[in-house]
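Researcher: Quick one. two chains, 647 residues in total.
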Amino acid sequence: MNRLSWFNTVSLTLGFAFLYIPMIILIIFSFNESKLVTVWAGFSTKWYGELINNEAFLNAAWVTLKVAVFSSTIATVLGTMAAYVLVRGGRFLGRTLFSGMIYAPLVMPEVITGLSLLLLFIGIGLDRGVLTIVLAHTTFSMCYVSVVVSSRLVTFDRSLEEAALDLGCSPAQAFRLVTLPIIAPAVISGWLLAFTLSLDDLVIASFTSGPSATTLPIKIFSAVRLGVSPEINALSTIMIAIVTIGVITASLVTKQSRVRAQRDEQAAARAQ
Amino acid sequence: MNATVFAPWVDPDEKPLIRFQNVTKRFGDFTAIDDLSLDIFEKEFFALLGPSGCGKTTMMRMLAGFESPSAGRIELAGQNIAPVPPNKRAVNMMFQSYALFPHLSVWDNIAFGLRRDNLPKHDIQDRVEEMLKLTRLEKFARRKPHQISGGQRQRVALARSLAKAPKLLLLDEPLGALDKKLRQDTQFELMDIQETTGTTFVIVTHDQEEAMTVASRIAVMDEGKLMQVATPDEIYEAPATVYIADFIGDVNIIEGRARATGENQYQIDWAEGQQPLIASSTRSFSNDQTCHLAIRPEKVAISSERPENAANVLQGTVHDIAYLGNLSTYHVKLPNGHMIKAQTANTRRIARRSFTWEDTVWLSWTATAGVLLES
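Model:
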């Protein structure tokens, strides 16, 4: 192991401190005995206990989860379809326009997306609730999915699909039996991306949610405006834990499969 | 001639398996295939040979159904195949990249096509086992494509494309990714498998040795046109044009003017102060017509003494020797600067060679050794 020079050590420490000190403080104060957020009065897990009995927060968490699962699933289907057509459709009229337009929502200010969706829902007389949030989240996250999937499809060997057709597959079967299993990692990471985006969206959700359905970020935001409570710290700590576990699991899984593939290839090379 | 020689193309009553009729294929302004007609017969091992970009791969993709002709008609067993999509054709293809499905095992790759036909399970099992045996892959059935070597992958691709017992198997540069030794072994394996299964093979290649080795007939293509369609020996011994003579194997081309001296006999005036060359030709030339004498290096004899009774004799000095172990090719410079290649088998040890660099030697060949070609 190389030892880091003092300069590198300092920059590393500063960088990570900048990123993580706010979160660490939040986590520490979630175990605070006192009701006052900024005054330490001893260790306690009582705010976690209170959280379990807080119906409003639990409801919001449930709504958020539902919205995230539904919207990311619909966005994955639509985004994959769009990516497939744009990469594989060959040259058709307006292809450049379409591929430009599918990426535009990535850079569109969220406030504008939210506002235009709100106007649309009012215009067609759709009551705001879980459905409208799902639709709104699908709208903005499908372009992320399509970016991820199309970058995989560009490097996909087309002759694999031709081989499937040649062996008797209909085009739909070729997609289901050959293309989809091979691009599955990209589709899954697209889904995960859409899921996370939906989970932490505040702006668009606040435009499209109604009194009947509130997501967790909205709930936290409005609760904080009345004053930060240790309960919210506890809730945030739980969310940080979930995200951390998720990220670590995902990277472990991909690393493991990469290591296995590498080992297999080396074994094959030795066998020759 | 032996009556059992396989040559359906000379029999006018024989029905071709594949018939290209005035097929043209254009990609935008580029004409890949230009008004091409060709018959391929059942059980043939047919090679499409040409430099890259000559249209040979386009021909194959049209047979597989991935491209459709811009004009003309392609028939398979008498049926126009234009309206038939690739998955409904009794044609299978072995891809240049092998296109093995990376997420499936060797076994499942081979069974892939059979499963699409909804065959009973034990039929699929039997057929896959048969294919594994044919290609000697039994040991690797459970492996994934990335767990086997290049040569094994090539055999999986072959087994997969043969599993459905197609009427026609297309092979797109099947041996391009293998090293030379393995390629030569595999060529003979391919020929054995073609004979065992009785399938019609169409192979696309840019390697003329490969085409000569495996094929019953070769079509030499250039710029979307057929230059010559013939058996390997005809292509080698009687090339139709200077281009083909030059493309297949090594050749000396001597340009000159023809003068008839008898029936099918010509004298060629080819250089100032040199004796005219004598050649026989079934192709007729008018007097003073420009012609090219194409003569293979191995048909040119080299000796240190002037040979007697040879139809054509030239004197020169040895300029270069390419020693290949079994053969040596001598580059002999004539007094007028012209270079002629002569090839001999090294039947004696190299120390016993009777001439070396800068030696004066005599080159000779018979009147029938070369081919007289129009320009």
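The domain at 8-245 of chain B is CATH 3.40.50.300 (Rossmann fold).
Researcher: Thanks, that's what I needed.
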